[in-house]
Amino acid sequence: MITLFEKICAREIPADIVYEDDICVCFRDIAPQAPVHLVLVPRKPIPRIAAAELEDANILGQMMCRIGEITRAAGLAENGFRVVINNGSDGGETVAHLHIHLLGGRQMTWPPG
């Protein structure tokens, strides 16, 4: 089954895309949990972080390295931001396609959720 995020990557569903390359796509979350809430997804449909294989290490590494560029462009780098990866229903995952939430623009609290 094709996921919502695969359809966004393929431009079949509109999204406010803020960054994209051949590895990943980053867009604004439609139900933001912070003043800035971005979602970074790999173009390859990896179901969740716990399902990532060693062959996905390059994709995951490149995505993590893109976070600095994306958050600087979004104005989050100076004051800070939170990076969240949910895994499974108890972890709050709602789309079975690995995605990284980038949240900022306000003070984050701890513990989360």
Written overview of the protein:
Helices cover 20% and strands 22% of the residues. It has 113 residues and is α+β, with helices and mostly antiparallel strands. The protein has one domain (4-104): HIT-like (HIT family, subunit A). The longest helix has 17 residues, at 57-73. The chain is globular, with a radius of gyration of 14 Å.
Low confidence ranges:
none
Radius of gyration over all CA atoms, rounded: 14 Å
Q: Which structural category fits the helices and strands?
A: alpha+beta
Largest sheet: 5 strands, antiparallel
Within CATH, the superfamily carries the name: HIT-like
CATH class: Alpha Beta
List the strand order in the largest sheet. 1-2-3-5-4
Which shape, going by the Cα principal axes? globular
Task: Write out key terms for the chains shown.
HIT family, subunit A, globular, 2 helices, 113 residues, 5-stranded antiparallel beta sheet, 20% helix, alpha+beta
Quick structural summary:
The protein is an alpha+beta fold.
How does the SSE layout of this entry go?
Layout: H1 4-9, E1 17-20, E2 24-28, E3 36-42, H2 57-73, E4 81-84, E5 100-104
Antiparallel strand pairs: 1-2, 2-3, 3-5, 4-5
